[in-house]
Amino acid sequence: MQDTISTGKQSRIIKKAWHVFWHMLFWLGMISFFIFLARTNDELNMRQLLVIFLLYPAINITLFYLNFLFYIPRFLDKKRYWAYACVILLTIIVYGIGKYGVGLQFKDVVLIHSKNKQISFTSYFFSTIFTSLIFVFLSTVLKFTTDWFLNERIQRDLENQRLSAELAFLKSQINPHFLFNSLNSIYSLAYQRSETTPEAILKLSEIMRYMLYECNDNRVDLSKELQYLQNYIDLQKIRFGNKAFIDFKVMGEVTNQQIVPLLLIAFIENAFKHGVANDVMTPIKLLINVDECKLHFYIQNKKHTHNRDAVGGIGLTNVQRRLNLLYPDKYTLHIRDEDDTYTCELSITL
After folding, report:
1. What mean pLDDT comes out for the span 93-113?
2. Which helix (H) or strand (E) holds 87?
């Protein structure tokens, strides 16, 4: 715990150090640029360059950060607008007087015209007000811009955390939902004293191993997900005493494509749960077509008019929500609930 806190503190210190570095680099670059331009003017000596392009910019930069670091957070961010206006006005006046005082120390550089006439206090003071307002304006713009980007990043982080929590919740629903249905199937076999019960338990253990150890990542190999679907279908065939009829085909080339785990199983569960699987004339039709980065999933089953599970509905609702979160604008889902058949077609850009 202490190591985590220490690491977080070090990260914040490093981040602040980088901010200071980039700010210093920017101002040094700006000052150097103007000094370089002014060096082309032979009338300015080194003393004049330092006063005009180093001393006075340094004074203006202090005003910039006084507003950026203190006035805006303490007044403007807290909506103390009148206090902020008064503080800014007072500061600009103080800076104007202070700049004139500095100018008296370098009268020949700052206050003397080309005609050897000294600039009056009033004229110089009003010119400093304009300069000060520019630096106040720039620091205000920078502050609000950085705060806006920071708030946007915080909002994105919070949204990502919310989505991650919701996805974790949705995924946590899948395992109990699947296990509930599978245990029902195995209970039915055990109740009938079927010799296939051990085989069903073994098949279920393979499925659960995949769900527990292979599905922790956001994406899994499509080949593994398809094998998982095949294992589930095999389990259902055992449950039906090999009298479950399903026309399952995979077309296309399955290479290194990846998919969100446990995304397709709900459609197959739904077909076995609410459909007729033991009619050889109307088998469950399942077609998966893989085309490079596209996957087309099609399943159709004859509806079982006597099978109405009031507890059902978690699976498909879960899938649709996960699709919205994980494949936004990258999928199409069409569900046709007709009198005799139920059809689902899903296309995903992997």
Report:
1. 82
2. helix 81-105
**pLDDT one-digit tens code per residue, 260-306:** 888 888 888 888 878 888 888 888 999 999 988 899 999 998 887 66
CA distances from 157 to 16, 27, 95, 164 (A): 20, 31, 41, 10
Question: Which token pair is 134?
Answer: 């520019």
- As beta bridge partners, residue 344 has 299, 335
The 3-state DSSP class for residue 73 equals helix
The pLDDT value given to residue 13: 73
Work out the end-to-end distance of the chain between its first and last CA atoms, rounded to an integer number of angstroms: 39
Partners of residue 343 on adjacent β-strands: 300, 336
Contact indicator for 238, 196 with CB cutoff of 8 Å: yes
Query: According to the 3-state scheme, what is the secondary structure of 301-327?
Result: EEECCCCCCCCCCHHHHHHHHHHHHHC
8 Å CB contact between 260 and 167: no
Alpha carbon distance 261, 136 (integer Å): 54
Please check the confidence at residue 95 and state whether its pLDDT lies above 50: yes
Instruction: Please say whether the beta carbons of 163 and 195 come within 8 A.
Output: no
CA-to-CA distance for 217 and 267, rounded, in angstroms?
21
- For residue 339, the one-letter residue type is D
Q: Which one has a higher pLDDT value, 162 or 93? A: 93
pLDDT at 169: 63
pLDDT at 26 over 90: no
92, 133 Cβ separation under 8 angstroms:
yes
Average pLDDT over the chain reads 80
Pairing of strands 284-291, 246-252: parallel
The structure tokens 């490079």 sit at: 292
Beta bridge partners of residue 9, listed in sequence order:
none
For 152-189, the DSSP string reads HHHHHHHHHHHHHHHHHHHHHHHHHHHHHHHHHHHHHH
Q: What is the pLDDT of residue 216?
A: 74
The predicted structure's pLDDT at residue 76: 86
Q: How far is it, in rounded angstroms, from Cα 38 to Cα 55? A: 15
